Amino acid sequence: MINAICVRNNEVITETNPEKIAELLASGPRLLWVDIAMDIDGFSDEEMDLLSGSFKFHELSIEDCMIPQYHPKIEEFDGYLFAALHGVRPKALNLGDIDEMVFELDMFIGKEYIVTVHAGDIPFMETHFQRARLKPMVELRSMEYLLFNIFEKITQSYEFYTERINDMIDRVEEKLLERPSPEILAEIFSLKKGLISMRKVLDPQKTVYTYFARETNTHFTKRSIAYFREIYFQYDRISQTLLSFAQMTSSLMEIYVSTTTLKLNEIIKFLTIIATIFMPPVIIASYYGMNVDFPEAKYVGTAGLWYVAIATTVGAMFGLFLLVKRKKWL
Asked: Which of 30, 167, 296, 306 is most buried by its number of CB atoms within 10 A?
């Protein structure tokens, strides 16, 4: 599906017909924004004719739009720039599934136009397009300003992701301190997987933002480069936040191992103390269970051996219990 909005001679024109869009491009607009929501099967014939015929984009950059890739890139072609950026879908359920979580936005950036291409719907693109149609003199006052707003929306999509990760880390910490369990370990692994997947996409994207923010960039004015530099700083802050989350996840793993080890040590310690206290009855029962004449029988008699065995057992157990309490082992 194709949507286009054009500013020409203080006139705002919206168009969905590819042939009409080609005529607007040929008329030399002040600014033309074309947004293409690509189907699962790729570009339609009309969309392909518009990109390759009217705009004359290189076939390699068109191919990059058709094949999903999770490596951001920026390339210079004759008369335009091609950029591939990635953001996070706001309603991603599984943070560890990169296919579900990440969307790709490809952009062709010329002197008078911006062409955005994406697979399926991206909510903020539709919202921003409607805002541009209602307030064109504000949202479409320059190509750099439009580009800055798109970059900002992509960067803000990571803000929602970092908030979700932060909430999950807080929740796991509370559960971990209350009672560690295998379910908590599964949540920690899910967090770790999501952060690894996100950093695979996030870290290479710094190259793209660095290109737009550098002072030697000849495609934009120095005034507009300051806006792109602000985007770079926001992105760098998010990158550092995700890095700190990765470190916190590793710490949670260490806390889990330490907590379970401590709990296991307490269990072993308790069982060892119980076994030690009940060791005298086993030894005394083994002794008096032998079929021999006991020397002490001549003092207490055969019937009194039972009382001697009981008294010795209780005394030994009580003495060991007092020793354990005195040493504060229990």
From this structure: 30
